[in-house]
Amino acid sequence: MALREIRKINDEVLRKKSRRVDKIDDRIRILLDDMLETMYHANGVGLAAPQVGILKRVVVVDIGQGPVKLINPEIIYSEGLQIDVEGCLSVPDVRDNVERPKKVIVKALNENGEEIKVEGEDFFARALCHEIDHLDGILFIDKVKKDGGMI
Predict the structure, then answer these.
(1) What is the C-alpha separation between 121 and 103, in angstroms, rounded?
(2) Distance separating alpha carbons of residues 107 and 76, to the nearest angstrom
(3) pLDDT of the residue at 1
């Protein structure tokens, strides 16, 4: 495993739409492992491939309950609303209020190419949504609540 450079807000790769992964091979598995190592090293709870300069639909999340690796994730169900403070490894030193679903179900592939469904509530739902947004070039600062922001 290796640490990868986390791209910052001024890097145009963060604003591009990522491509679906058509073939899960050792390169994708190495990317997932490197992303986890990079995320842990930076004290983050999630990381998307564009944040390390790779335009592939790949994310990792660990809110303290063990790592979750998702390939081609898509939100297939959401309910409720929550507003809470978010930050991002690609937008250092900025925290602000963002509205997200309270609960989500995400369909994805795992690193073995098997279809899985991951259910997230509260902080886990927030982290999943945040990382999946990265795959479409959306940063949390694009969703800041204008009536209660801290920027």
Answers:
(1) 4
(2) 7
(3) 76
pLDDT at 40 over 60: yes
C-alpha to C-alpha distance for 113 and 5, rounded to whole angstroms: 26
Active site residue: 37, 114, 119, 131, which one? 131
Which residue type, as a one-letter code, is found at position 67?
P
Residue 109, classified by CB atoms within 10 Å of its CB into exposed (0-12), middle (13-18) or buried (19+), is: buried
Per-residue confidence at 21, pLDDT binned at 50, 70, 90? very high
Q: Is 131 a catalytic residue?
A: yes
Question: Which phi and psi angles does 17 have, rounded to 5°?
Answer: -85, 135
pLDDT, tens digit, for every residue of 46-88? 999 999 999 999 999 999 999 999 999 999 999 999 999 999 9
What domains can you pick out in the chain, each with its CATH number?
12-143 (3.90.45.10)
Please state, in angstroms and as integers, the Cα–Cα distance from residue 117 to each residue in 68, 70, 79, 104, following that order: 11, 10, 16, 10
User: Residue 147: is its pLDDT beyond 70?
Assistant: no
Give the integer Cα–Cα distance in Å for 1 and 80: 38
